[in-house]
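Internal QA ticket QA-208
Title: Verify multi-chain structure generation after dependency bump
Assignee: T.L.

Test input:
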Amino acid sequence: MPQLIVNNITLRFSGLTALSDVSFEVTKNEILAIIGPNGAGKTCLLNCISGFYKPQEGNMSFDGMDLITTPIYERTMKGIARTFQNIELFNGLTALDNIMAARHAHFKTGVIRSGIHFGKARDEEIYHREIVEQIIDFLEIKPVRKKIVGSLPYGMRKRVELGRALAVEPKLLLLDEPMSGMNVEEKEDMARFVIDIFEDKQIPIILIEHDMGVVMDISDRVMVLEFGKKIAEGIPDEIVKNEKVINAYLGQ
Amino acid sequence: MRRESGVFDVNYVQDMKIFRTKYHVIGMIALIAFFLSLPFFKNQFWLTFINSTAVTIIALQGLNILSGYCGQISIGHTAFMAVGAYSSTILAAQFGLPLWFCMIIGALCAGLIGILFGLPSLRVKGYYLALTTIAAQFIIIYLIKTPFPEITGGAIALQVPEFTLGGFKFETETHFYYLIITLLIMTTFFSKGVLRSKFGRAFIAIRDNDIAAEAMGINLYKYKLLAFFLGCFYAGFAGALWAAYARVISPDDFTLMNSIWQMGMLIIGGLGSTLGPFFGALFIKLLNEICLVAGPFISSIIPQIGAQISASLVEMSFGVAIILFLAFEPRGIAHRWEILKDSYRLWPFSY
Ligand SMILES: Nc1ncnc2c1ncn2[C@@H]1O[C@H](COP(=O)(O)OP(=O)(O)OP(=O)(O)O)[C@@H](O)[C@H]1O
Ligand SMILES: [Mg+2]
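Actual output:
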């Protein structure tokens, strides 16, 4: 399986150090939770991995490929897929087309054949449509699949976003607070989806989450950030007993 | 899209079809039959009207790909029509190549120059990009007017060679009518095909959320430039077709004002909808004709306003139409049409 290796990365914004000297690795299929107080740098770390931020120091690689110099869309094509903390959907498209749009890199047909829309172009469209319908079934969003996503309730939009990440056919899935702002029932559904994806796809998942109950339940390993520094890393049972972690959360 | 209950798609092929019930197909055949028979009524006014409107629709289809779908606002669209018109005409006149072939080359030239002027879109968005497209308008028209008047005809008119196809000479309004309508059908199907494929979804993704688009594996640079190429290719093709039809072109056919009108037509018709270019061009061209008739009529009743009222009436009513649409139906006539169609279909049970 592809390995993610992050070595001593430091990310600064004029004056503010969002990440300092952070290192970690994902070398086996596991759910890695990243926790930490607000502003700790969790989203920044994810943005570095997916390419939206470029760390000033350190290096990263995925599947043997140097990440620092690789553009965002190529990282996606290599199998790094993500969701966003504040939902970022294509609001003018239906739920179905949002997920279809994420199949982008898997289409082979060129412009001219697509324009004529016969034979291969149509077969390809149908092939991908079937994959997308399976994702829609899995996430239980069939009734809303023809609705424009801008009009969907929050919980549904979060699911469409997860569906979009799945359509990429990820080899590494990055989820930024997939359960934030949800009620207990919605959270349980989402946790179930994450576990099912993990078991079905056999891929590592990096999950940012504030809800400690969820983290304890579903993660294999936990990494804790505070003020841009990694302060602890280990299995959930160790993390809850860790002095530094307790202080970081009590100090809030 | 809603349909009568009981009409379900049993497979994805059916779900993806453009014409989904047999009424669609019958309606389409009736429409085509109507257009085929139109020249037999021997009404020159309407033939001319349809010919010039259809060419505008082709140009608007290009603008729709670029601005409506991909969200890259262009206010220099007629400059790319000029590139197509002039390069096709000059190629045919200087080298004696067949005009139909030169029209394709002209469209390609417009597409490539479109890519050039699309390069700023990799760094700037919105108003700033709109400004760079206005720059395209000035630079291109300057290059046509000034440096090589012996080739381009300068600020004065340039004659266009005859359009022939397989030995057949296109001379009358009717000949061009059949040619233009055929080409319009082809450009419509092609753009519809592109826009419902991965390319269309990528364009909309870039328009709606460029951050997420890139995170889904879409190469923003490549697809923005592709939108510029396609949009300007359509403009160039429409320009070259216009030249072949009008037989004479001048820089005055491709002004900044015309580009603004085209953007206005697309807004009124419906940005990002296949029907938008049709509704927009028809609406404005009809409004134009009405004003041309109403102008002299008004000044004959109230002589104090003067005889020039026609010209200003056209511009004023265009301005008012834009304001009204932006205020009450910013998604254009195409959106109204969808709503109307749905409620009519399901009448009398709107459920
Ligand atoms: N684009 C940016 N420009 C300047 N500062 C930024 C930028 N993005 C993040 N920061 C800062 O970096 C720090 C870390 O932010 P980050 O979003 O990673 O926090 P987080 O751990 O995800 O917090 P939360 O739990 O609230 O989502 C914050 O102080 C934030 O203000
Ligand atoms: Mg965050």
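Spot checks passed. Residues 1-41 of chain B form one domain.
Status: verified.
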